[in-house]
Amino acid sequence: MIKKSLFALCGLCLLLAACGGAAAPQPAEATATQVDEQPPTPPHVPPLEGAQGMVLADINWYVNGDTLVMFGMAQNNGASDLYDVMVTVSLLNAASQTVDAGSRELPVLEAGGQAPFIVTFPADLEWEGYEAVFLELPAGPNTVLYAQDFEIVSASQVPGSCHSVPDSVFDLGIEVKQVGEMHGDAHELLAALFDPSGNIIAVSAAWICAETDDSIFFEVSVGPAEIAEGEIDGYELFVYGYVLGG
């Protein structure tokens, strides 16, 4: 996991360094229409201990067209590494009943570490609160690589290249080198963006632009409709690798 201020985006050399309980309900009348016009500020999320030490560290959302995107950070406060953790976010009405729910699997959360997640919903849902629940799944057929199996060699601004979206507000090209004993068959990179106060304002999955035997080249590109209200001040990068069937 990497954290770096945007003041030093060009020519960076970085090292790669993820719950149970319900969050406080949102303010009344927080409908999808209001979120689309001006995303409400999420309430402070206290460190509520969940199963196996999981906590919800932060959460936010935005509306892009007909899609409501909820995103946040999960944190493992336990003493053991966790694998294949499923985060399920439920939207609640005024009576605390579930309106809709969506899930995202987190491949690995090392002890003391964090990882971002993204869950999507239809934008026309009427909801006034949310709940996030984390569950560790049974071991699957694939081997998940550790963070130390990767090194982020460089990260720099590359507007207009590879898979940049139109009128993007954030573009980053990343070279990741596989340095572990095992090389992955499939790879994913997620970028979490933060405002000057440290609040999460976007999570974006990266495109793979190219791949060699040792290096994977990603690009993160965030459009103006893919970010909650706030100014981008910093970011963290999370790389995942899988040995399929290993």
SSE pattern: EHEEEEEEEEEEEEEE
Radius of gyration, rounded?
A: 18 Å
Strand content: over 45%
If helices are DSSP runs of H or I spanning 4 or more residues, what is the number of helices? 1
What's the total count of β strands? Answer: 15
Question: Poorly predicted ranges (pLDDT <50, ≥5 residues)?
Answer: 1-50
Q: Outline the biggest β-sheet.
A: 5 strands, antiparallel
Structural class: mainly beta
> Globular, elongated, flat, extended or rod-shaped: what is the shape?
globular
Relative helix content: under 10%
Average pLDDT reading: 80
Query: Distance between termini?
Result: 24 Å
Summarize the structure in words.
- The strands form four sheets. Strands 1, 8, 11, 12 and 15 form a five-stranded antiparallel beta sheet that branches. This protein has a four-stranded antiparallel beta sheet with strand order 9-10-14-13, with no helix packed on it. The protein has a three-stranded antiparallel beta sheet with strand order 2-3-6.
- The protein is mostly beta strands.
- It is globular, with a radius of gyration of 18 Å.
- The two termini are 24 Å apart.
- Helices cover 2% and strands 49% of the residues.
- Strand 4 and strand 5 (98-109) form a beta hairpin.
List keywords for this structure.
246 residues; mainly beta; 5-stranded antiparallel sheet; 4-stranded antiparallel sheet; 1 helix; 49% strand
